[in-house]
Design brief:
alpha/beta; FAD/NAD(P)-binding domain; 7-stranded mixed β-sheet; 10 helices; 18 strands
Length: 407
């Protein structure tokens, strides 16, 4: 899915074959625009830095996922939350579930959907810089584009090239995949709180699709020594051996990376350019979840940019970012977790009603609808409506519809 015409002019160039980038590109192509996705990897599913958990809201509201093959996901109905002393509580919400995913295959499937919509996918090509021209940008080695979307991850080169905001606060994460691993309970996301092993975040076990994913994220020095995370993972695996008997099993795959946790960057847009997904810092500062916001805001950004390129509204760089999540409460909770996390307090209060309620709010929170703010121009309302029409209310296909944005 590559092309030799990468130097030709297009309406929109999306840098990064991510959840946000592919969603945005698919919408634009289905609106009849010439769209190119540029991805430095040869395989969009290679070397992903995500656990790949999808929350129920995304499945319910993102029509793009309606045809996602069932063999790429596994439904998990609840959480088992462990205190540092390994006591635990089970958390559930009626009708709620999470989906573990075979994330590399999901990304490849999304790329195939984009290609079917008419997106030009250029793999093995790096974005190295852009120069502003009257009608858009001239990209080094990639031709001209009327609009540019930066969906190239937490260390976005698009953000660097355009002097946009860049992620400054990170957690360091690592995850191992094991085959044939026996869990004491296989229908739960296992989450472990331990300030010594995972300060600022948690460890986890995910009964995934054909594998068991075990990982953790934590605050680390800006430049940790190469073996630091491996030593921490060894301690974590030893601690949880009663839940997952890893023994001397060798992981099938190991991934590690930095997870942005500082909220949306500023500025997040420039003339005829937008950042979306991790590049925009659109990751929950508390849960580190970003797939749902990436998909929803990626779809909505596609509609907004399409309206602009069709001459129906002003450049969304000037108004669309107002719809991005503010994460005010979650940034406050991040501050508390960073500065006041206490293993003793968690051990003592795990089973208390206030702690259970707080944990349930974090894990099962029905994320409220985040609509764009009131606009003085009618066309902004039209863009919002185009991004939130109920399925079947438009002559466009169901897969093209974008639901209301959510936090």
């Amino acid at each position: 899915m590559s092309s030799s015409s990468a130097s030709a002019s297009v309406d929109c160039t999306v840098v990064g074959a991510s959840f946000a980038g592919l969603a945005c590109a698919t919408v634009l192509a289905r609106r009849g625009l010439r769209v190119r996705v540029v991805e430095r990897k040869q395989d969009p599913g290679d070397k992903l830095h995500t656990t790949g958990i999808i929350v129920k809201e995304v499945v319910d509201q993102i029509a793009l996922l309606d045809r996602l093959p069932t063999d790429l996901v596994r439904q998990i109905p609840g959480i088992r939350l462990y205190a540092p002393n390994m006591r635990y509580v089970d958390l559930d919400a009626p009708g709620y579930y999470f989906l573990a995913t075979d994330t590399p295959r999901v990304i490849r499937w999304l790329a195939a959907q984009a290609a079917d919509a008419g997106v030009e996918l250029v793999f093995g090509a790096s974005f190295t810089g852009a120069a502003r021209i009257r009608h858009g940008y001239r990209l080094e080695g990639l031709g001209e584009t009327r609009y540019m979307i930066g969906a190239d991850g937490p260390n976005s080169q698009v953000a660097k090239s355009l002097a946009l905001g860049r992620n400054q606060k990170f957690l360091c994460g690592a995850e191992y995949e094991f085959a044939g691993l026996e869990l004491t309970v296989g229908d739960r996301l296992h989450c472990f709180v331990d300030r010594k092993i995972a300060p600022g975040y948690i460890g986890w076990i995910v009964p995934g699709v054909g594998v068991t994913q075990i990982g953790l994220a934590r605050r680390m020095p800006p430049e940790p020594e190469p073996e630091a995370m491996k030593r921490v993972m060894d301690k974590f695996l030893a601690k949880i051996r009663g839940v997952a008997a890893v023994c001397d099993c060798e992981p099938l795959a190991v991934r590690a990376g930095m997870i942005p946790c500082g909220g949306v960057v500023r500025p997040v847009a420039a003339e005829r350019a937008l950042l979306v997904g991790d590049a925009a810092g659109m990751v929950s500062p508390v849960t580190a979840g970003g797939i749902h916001t990436a998909l929803k805001h990626g779809l909505a950004a596609g509609h907004a940019v399409a309206e602009f390129l069709e001459g129906k509204c002003e450049d969304p760089a000037g108004w669309f970012p107002a719809s991005y999540p503010k994460f005010r409460v979650k940034r406050f909770l991040r501050f508390l977790f960073d500065h006041f996390q206490s293993d003793l307090l968690f051990n003592l209060t795990l089973s208390s009603r206030p702690m259970r309620m707080a944990a349930s709010q974090i894990y099962f929170h029905r994320r409220g609808v985040l609509n764009p703010p009131p606009a003085s121009r009618v066309i902004r309302q039209q863009v919002a409506e185009s991004a939130s029409e109920p399925r079947g209310s438009s002559p466009r296909s169901a897969e093209e519809e974008s639901p209301p944005l959510q936090k």
